[in-house]
Amino acid sequence: MNDTWNKLEANIIKPGLCTQCGTCAGLSRGAIAFSEKKGIPIPTLINNTADIPEEAYSACPAKTCLYPQLNDFVFGKQEYSYLCGIVEKSYIGHTTDEKVRRNAASGGVLSALLIYLLEQKIINGAVCLQVGAKLPHKAEPIIARTKDEILKCAQSVYSVTSTNTILEQLEKEEGPLAYIGLPDQVASIRKLQMMNHPSVRSIKYVFGPYMGTQMYFGAIQHFLKSNGIKSENEIADLKYRAGEWPGYLQIKLKDGRVIKSEKFHYNYLIPFFITSSSLQLVDFTNELADISVGDAWSPKYENIKGGHSVVLARSEQGETLLRQMQEGGLLELKEIPISEAMDMHGHMIDFKKRGAFIRNKWKKIQPDYGYEPVHIPLPRIAVEWCLRFVFAIGKIKFVRVVVRYIPIGIIGPVFNTLRKGWKSVSKPTKRKGLRETQYKLTSHL
Ligand SMILES: Cc1cc2nc3c(=O)[nH]c(=O)nc-3n(C[C@H](O)[C@H](O)[C@H](O)COP(=O)(O)OP(=O)(O)OC[C@H]3O[C@@H](n4cnc5c(N)ncnc54)[C@H](O)[C@@H]3O)c2cc1C
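A: This is the predicted complex of the input protein with flavin-adenine dinucleotide.
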């Protein structure tokens, strides 16, 4: 049997570390594909005669993903914040094209970047996700070549999608391309760039959304069932962030019905369907991208509405691009201190930068990100045990079935109130000492 597959199976898949980034399948020459086991997409050997290249294992970001080394490679710098990576400038902003903005997840910045690069002929394609490219309910990675195709890819996809399965196709691309991916997918692209791998030769720009939590597709199936709809095959169109920011989940059915749920109500499914990668990954702000974009969660912008993004320029080419677009009137950007940008997401930064390290210590085989906190106070560990209990309850099938019978009009607001209550109760412990947390490099560096 293939040696690369043996290593993937023994060190990544069986210990439950796979983050479903898609790299192993994308580089496997057709030998590996994802198949669902108990609702979780798992890399599966579908052709055991094919010779799987070693990079399908070494570019995997799940077990060994050394951020200090990758930061040095991408940005040529070692001096950076362990909480948010290297940030040259931080902004609040949105695209000035209202059509793009209204069609997007937050301020439409990611879509606007891609459209500008395409229209200026700086790139000839952009890797992004399109829901409905093949099946109406499923997102697929595609290379968008026109503004219209970019717009079809807008908004966030909250169901796990293995973007890097597209790597096989990229090997044949002349480029230059832009690429959008989640933090682990971006990390894998950077590992491949470090290896000079042909699959990423054409990628010139790397952008990424922040990534707090993501869910298995079971969340959508559950939501359908709780609305009396038996199968995802009844979906005609699926949008995770439709309408006015922050948006709502909107599912149009083939029979013409439309079902919706406010973003913060739909979040009640997180404890039941959160992916293991959301719990494992320590990178919230997409630290290895040229530009990272998140929602500008702050009462000020939430009250204005319209869609506002927090934008971090990390590389020189990222910062130059933002400046050019701002000067050309394509982006409205207001520079803010990085501390303000971080304050908007203190809860999630803690979830990754202390919570994930605590959770990873509970694993038999632990991922190595090249650094770890020197010390996490006991009260913070206790908070994590409470969350562990909640997620364990959420995994029980009986509980999921019971929850399905509670109308979302009730459970959504109840969950939202509980979430807000939990956030305010745990806030002192979660924020206390976060900024001051000391990190150390892991031993082998
Ligand atoms: C799973 C997930 C979790 C997130 N969690 C948070 C969070 O906790 N806090 C926060 O502030 N922001 C979070 N974001 C980011 C936020 O939802 C927006 O993506 C971000 O604000 C960019 O908005 P935009 O209007 O500029 O993007 P848009 O202009 O709408 O463009 C989004 C681009 O990202 C691509 N894309 C969408 N989903 C994926 C995906 N799953 N994998 C790869 N590419 C994708 C799209 O194809 C599109 O090109 C998350 C995003 C995702 C996908």
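Residues 3-58 form one domain. Residues 104-111, 128-129, 153-158, 161, 163, 180-182, 209-212, 214, 293-295, 309, 348 surround flavin-adenine dinucleotide (CB under 6 Å).
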